[in-house]
Amino acid sequence: MKKGIYRGFAYCLILLLIVGFAGCVQAPAPQEDAAASGPGTMPEAESEAAPNGVGAADGYVYNPELTEDRIVAWALGCSAILATSNGKTDDRWDPYQFGMLEKNEDNATLIQRVLSNDWDISNRDELISTINSLAENGQNKDFVEAYRWVASLSDADMQKLIEMSKGIDVYMWPQTKRIGDKWGDKQIKAWDWFRMVHLAGWGYVAGYLERDEAYDLMKPAIELIRGTFSSWDDANENYLDGYAWWSRSNPDDPYNSYTYQVRKKAYADLKAYPPSINIFDPILWPDYVPGAQEEEPDYNKVFSYDDNGDGTCTITGLRWEIEGALNLPTEIDGLKVTAIGYSAFKDETGLTGNLTIPKGVSDIERMAFSGCTGFTGGLIIPEGMETIGQSAFSGCTGFTGGLSIPEGMETIQERTFYGCSGLMGQIDIPASVTNIEYMAFGACTGLNAFAVSGQNLSYSSSDGILFNKDGSTLILAPEGLQKNNFQVPEGVKLISAFAFSNCVGITGTITIPGSVGEIKVDAFSGCTGFSELNILNGVTFLNKDSFVGCSSLKKVTMPESMTNLGSGVFANCSSLSVAEFQGDAINDFSKSVFLKCADDFKILYNPAKTGWSTPEWNGYPCYPK
User: Fold this and answer.
1) Rounded to an integer, what distance in angstroms lies between the CA atom of residue 486 and that of residue 494?
2) CA–CA separation, 19 and 407 (whole Å)
3) How far apart are CA 503 and CA 50, in angstroms?
4) Per residue in 58-93, pLDDT tens?
5) Measured between alpha carbons, how far is 221 from 209 in angstroms, rounded to an integer?
6) What band does 601 get if pLDDT is binned at 50, 70 and 90?
7) What is the mean pLDDT of the segment spanning 462-477?
């Protein structure tokens, strides 16, 4: 366990002043916050010694107002963000349970493992010692040391420090300054004090503490929280800033700070969800005045959002779970909805029916609807859509009907519609599309034809297959393509990687014309329906794995022009028994070309050609025709 994060800063500052920022100051990376990446896990505690007794934290004065029911209320309020975040992946976590989990044998085992792995706590005494140490010697102590150092720098010296920093330090130095300036004497104390409450509750669930002992251990933290902060918003915002600092999250970068964003969203959702008023009860705070508490949330506002600052907003998700149709608004709180945010509805499997993206939305960010398997109708994307991010609709297996890409879109990004197996029929590509990325329509087994606008300057379509504009490159066939005795069009010079991958509806014979100079990797991989391959004279090169896994293929005819077969070209073609070669022996040949073909596989060659040997060639049975 790393101790004393940012310690030694004073030495570094002296060194920097001497060498003029010639060296590179880089803070140690934080311990992993396992709670953010999986259920039932939390960051490690500091290991400084602390008094070993229940309720022994310095500065604690017993408050008779902390009755049992109020201690429970405080415990729920302090634990709600973590319990809700963990509940996204494991429904055992419950923000309405004391200790975040029901007390039972399975959960006791879970929490004992968490405490041992992430906190180095294996018994009651270690638990109590750790809880008490957090009151004064947790991560806040390291933050104070770091802040005092960066606060002593001039603006010019801070800028120099940022310029010579690397990686996370580029944003962590100014972030430390920003958080310290924002909170003053409050520092990031809620981050440690909330975790005192978490640990006490877990001690009860794990069986290390009786319930009243857990109460006693929570009381010092509760008194510190209620004596330092003014409201749930105040305390929870400080807790989130503490988490961001500890985990090295950059709140301005949604990809870098995913787990921070999950916790932040959890708090917003909890405040908006009607039952949560029982969790964040304002009456618990010393300055509570009846009638002056914060305005109750509008429970009809099911969507969380980010204000874009220009009169528009981005929907970031649901404040609470819903089932049934998803009716996306065009406006929230007077702000026009122009975007659906990163992972906004990811894995919301209770959403059903059609999905209509409203007019005015121009940007659907990465994984916005990924894994929404409950949709059972059409997908309607309006004109004016400019960007649909990677995997935005991946795994939405229930969409039905065809798919029409709206005019105005230029790029269909990687895996955008991957696994939308329920979509059927035609894919309409407008004139505006200039780039279709890898696996954009992968595993869309029901789509059987591309139809490209004649005005498109980058792409064309013929017989349901996607080509470049002049037809010289065969780019992609839809996985639902149905063809018997299929012939690649004459004039095609290149067959792209994965062009026909998993097109199981192609049967009979596939014929490759002599105009094709190269067949790229995995071009026909997994095409389990066809039985014969006829490659005409002119083709010289089959790239690796070109026909891997074509399990119904029985016979291959190679032209006289063939000179190069990449590794594994016909590997796992389990029915392939004959490969017939018209020309000389292949110079560039990998022994894995025919790996795991039929037991009776053999090569037949033209006896007038050179380089072949019988009864074996390169480890394969080989005979003249």
Assistant:
1) 17
2) 58
3) 66
4) 444 444 467 888 899 999 999 999 998 888 888 899
5) 17
6) very high
7) 97
Classify domain 483-625 by CATH number: 3.80.10.10
- Show Cβ contacts of residue 454 under 8 Å, excluding neighbours closer than 6 positions: none
Which segment of 16-25, 280-289, 372-381 scores lowest on mean pLDDT? 16-25
Nearest-angstrom CA–CA distance, 54 and 218? 9
| Residue 509 burial (CB count, 10 A) | 16
CA distance 273 to 270: 5
Helix (H) or strand (E) holding 200: helix 189-206
CA distances from 173 to 149, 167, 177 (A): 10, 11, 7
Amino acid at the residue 501: S
Question: Who contacts 416 (Cβ-Cβ below 8 Å, separation ≥6)?
Answer: 388, 389, 390, 391, 392, 393, 394, 437, 440, 441
Q: Considering only CA atoms, which of 429, 474, 489, 475 is closest in space to residue 456?
A: 429
Query: Which of 375, 273, 368, 377 is CA-nearest to residue 317?
Result: 368
- % of the chain at pLDDT higher than 70: 86
Burial of 115 (0-12, 13-18, 19+ CB in 10 A): buried
Q: What's at 560, amino acid-wise?
A: E
Residue carrying the six token digits 């950059």:
250
The domain ranges of the chain are 9-24+66-284, 300-481, 483-625
Q: What is the pLDDT of residue 267?
A: 87
Strands 465-468 and 483-487 come out as unpaired
Spatial contact of 155 and 207, defined as CB atoms under 8 Å apart: no
Q: How far apart are CA 447 and CA 441, in angstroms?
A: 9
Residue 206 and residue 198 in contact, taking contact as beta carbons nearer than 8 Å: no
Q: The tokens 């690649």 sit on which residue?
A: 488
Task: Decide if 300-481 and 483-625 have a common fold.
Answer: yes
Q: What share of the chain is helix, strand, coil (3-state, %, to 5)?
A: 30, 20, 55
Residues 102, 111: contact at Cβ < 8 Å? no
Amino acid, single-letter form, for residue 240: L
The amino acid occupying position 335 is L
The string of pLDDT tens digits covering residues 215-261 is: 999 999 999 999 999 999 999 999 999 999 999 888 777 767 778 88
pLDDT tens figures, 172-210: 999 999 999 999 999 999 999 999 999 999 999 999 999
The residue whose two tokens read 């994984």 is 367
Question: How many angstroms separate the CA atoms of 388 and 336, rounded?
Answer: 18
For residues 394 and 401, give the distance between their C-alpha atoms in angstroms, rounded to a whole number: 16
Q: Say whether 294 sits in a helix, a strand or coil.
A: coil
Do residues 189 and 238 touch, judged by C-beta distance below 8 A? yes
Tokens of 590: 């990998």
Alpha helices in 20-61 (DSSP H): 34-37
Are 599 and 573 spatial neighbours (Cβ–Cβ below 8 Å)?
A: no
Q: What CATH number labels 300-481?
A: 3.80.10.10
Residue position matching structure tokens 């001039």: 154
402, 377 contact by CB (below 8 A) = no
Torsions phi, psi for 461 (to 5 deg): -135, 145
Q: Please state, in angstroms and as integers, the Cα–Cα distance from residue 603 to each residue in 508, 514, 548, 580, 621, following that order.
A: 21, 22, 18, 6, 6
How many C-beta neighbours within 10 Å does residue 287 have? 9
Query: In the predicted model, what is the mean pLDDT of residues 548-562?
Result: 97
